[in-house]
Amino acid sequence: AKNERTFIMVKPDGVQRGVVGDVLHRFERRGYKLVALKMIQAPKVLLESHYAEHKGKKFYEPLLTYIGSGPVVAMVWEGLNIVSVGRKMLGATDPAKSEPGTIRGDYGIVTGRNIVHGSDSETSAQREIDLWFRPDEINQWPHTAEKWIYE
Ligand code: DAT
Ligand code: MG
């Protein structure tokens, strides 16, 4: 559906590397609709909830330290098949396995500094959007270019 949503986040390394604008540009120029955006240094409780599925793994604590080490740019994007297309635009979890032309494939080298996050399913997207944004932070606006993006 055209109103499918995903949660995309530029991680602290992405902010430091100056790729916030590029990440926005990639989703924007593709034709997706930005409906929420904020910069936030996430408290540990938020990160524990966001990464709950990884609790107990060896990279879990370093991951929370890394993501909590500085501000992130959190976004909600909307459009047809945005969850799966968004994951393709990000590239593989390990940047070494990401194709050039993807965000991680263009900017990353190691998994523990992979620049961006994107929801892995519609269920995860809903959970993550609810975790990071209040309902009143999600914007309703007419995307007037839509008639040129969809047939
Ligand atoms: P993704 O972010 O592609 O959904 P994931 O959910 O498996 O990947 O893992 C979440 C994040 O945790 C990932 O972006 C980077 C970190 N991570 C995952 N596996 C790792 C590993 N083997 N070593 C270091 N960091 C890892
Ligand atoms: Mg994941």
UniProtKB/TrEMBL annotation:
Query: Active site annotated at which positions?
Result: H117
Enumerate the SMART domains for this protein. Answer: NDK
Q: Name one GO biological process term.
A: CTP biosynthetic process
| UniProt binding sites for ATP | K11, F59, R87, T93, R104, N114
The Nucleoside diphosphate kinase-like domain covers which part of the protein?
3-140
Q: Which reaction does it catalyse?
A: a 2'-deoxyribonucleoside 5'-diphosphate + ATP = a 2'-deoxyribonucleoside 5'-triphosphate + ADP
Sorted keywords for this record are: ATP-binding, Kinase, Nucleotide-binding, Transferase
Q: Give GO MF terms, alphabetically.
A: ATP binding; nucleoside diphosphate kinase activity
List cofactor names only.
Mg(2+)
Stated EC number for the protein is: 2.7.4.6
- NCBIfam families recorded: PRK00668.1
Q: Which PANTHER family match?
A: NUCLEOSIDE DIPHOSPHATE KINASE
State the similarity comment.
Belongs to the NDK family.
Q: What is this protein called?
A: Nucleoside diphosphate kinase
Species assigned in the record? Rotaria sordida
